[in-house]
Automatic annotation (TrEMBL):
It comes from Thalassorhabdomicrobium marinisediminis. GO terms for molecular function: nucleotidyltransferase activity. Residues 5-159 form the MobA-like NTP transferase domain. It holds the Pfam family NTP_transf_3. Keywords: Magnesium, Transferase. This is Nucleotidyltransferase family protein.
């Protein structure tokens, strides 16, 4: 089993008081949209700042919530710790990436299963590194050493056996962090 870990515990600090993950895309809150896509593959674990956070109300009932406070590395460590023992790996996806589809997640999972690589990273069409990223269970202990808001980039950089999978266009890097990002996304 390869669950998806959806990172949604951030504060939306650059959104001028608006929660970016509750903003709507095609009539659905972004977090609900991304969780539904992840659930198409199987189990989905979602990090939130608290179990009673307003974001929880938009999640499908089958999404498993992991409460976490702190930095990005704290979210990653808590999410990894919450995975079942039967997980042979995990696909990690920041929740603010609206163009990542269930098909993209499946493509990454298939590449991981086919290559048996310890890490499989999505890239843009022109091969710029992005998200989502698959980590085999053999990589889980490496998360314990992470600190701060840099995510798992250090783990990926230190893995010579990592494989990349190009996704269409810029979707592997398109995230919506600011009101300007949202405005540009909505007018395209």
């Amino acid at each position: 089993m390869i669950p998806v870990l959806l990172l949604a515990a951030g504060r939306s600090s650059r959104m001028e008081g608006v929660d970016k993950l509750l903003e709507e895309v095609d009539g659905t809150p972004l977090l609900a949209r991304m969780a539904a896509r992840a659930l198409e593959l199987g189990p989905c674990f979602v990090t939130l700042p608290a179990l009673d956070h307003p974001r929880r109300a938009v999640l499908p009932a089958t999404a498993q919530v992991v409460a976490v406070t702190g930095t990005m590395s704290d979210s990653l460590k808590a999410g990894i710790a919450a995975l079942p023992q039967t997980a042979c790996g995990v696909i990690i996806l920041p929740a603010d990436m609206p163009d990542i589809t269930a098909e993209n997640l499946a493509t990454l999972r298939e590449a991981a299963q086919r290559t048996q690589a310890p890490i499989v990273r999505a890239t843009t069409q022109d091969h710029q590194p992005g998200h989502p990223v698959y980590f085999a269970a053999s990589q889980f202990p490496r998360f314990a050493g992470l600190r701060g808001d840099r995510g798992a980039a250090k783990l990926i950089a230190a893995c010579p056996d990592a494989v990349t999978v190009a996704l269409p266009g810029n979707r592997a890097r398109l995230d919506l962090d600011t009101p300007q990002d949202w405005a540009a996304y909505r007018t395209r």
